[in-house]
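Protocol step 4 of 6.
Sequence for Acyl-ACP thioesterase (Baileyella intestinalis) entered exactly as in the expression construct, tag removed. Do not edit the line below.
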Amino acid sequence: MRTEAEVPGVFMVTHQVDSTETDMFSRMRLSAFFRLLQKVSVLHCEALGAGRAVTLDRGILWVVTMHHGEFTRMPDYEEKVIIETWPGKTMYSLFPRYYRMTDMGGRELAKVSSIWTHVDMKTREVVPPAESGISIDQVVTGKEVPLPAVPVSIPPESTVIYKVPYSNIDLNQHMNNSCYYDLAENEFRPSREGRAVKTINAMYSGELHLDDDVRISAGHEGNRYYISGEKDKRMFAISMVYHQV
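Step 5 output, structure tokens:
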């Protein structure tokens, strides 16, 4: 259900966490959270006239390349939350987008920034706004978090080979970025112990396709955990800091 935002240009959606989105601690999984952000982004782009008719139907894909997140807590099973999203200032071929999640009482649960771009469906090359004709006006709320930064690597403590399964592939014909968070939480002990994430920096620098073999490396330094996937080059990297117990 959509609601009216306090700031013009901000798009709002209410969402109730269901059982398919939760982990063993009855909290929303990170992968489900980032899938929800994708869904809300699509809805807002449709409302702005930058949706399927001028992108997918013309062979142009919206692709997210980076995320930065700051978290107070993740919502619980059956909890209702409000997701706000608004566009930042377009930089060449990069479209920043911001998000904010609150509980129904207005208490802030998470703030996220992201970088999106347009990619040609066939050539997989970036499509600049001058070519796509898509323009999105900046909205400023004063609640923006810093734009994403490149995750700082940590020497690996474990390395495994992961074959990309059918279930990870989305309509863009590549592994959906939200699946990387399942890989991360499968490897990171704090997630398995029920500790909540505090900050995230993530970069998605290449496309992984069905049956690709990816070398997954993970390590940690103190309270910060790092995971990356490499094929011919580094395809993704995520750095996560957890709340102290």
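Step 6, annotate. The first strand starts at residue 2 and ends at 3.
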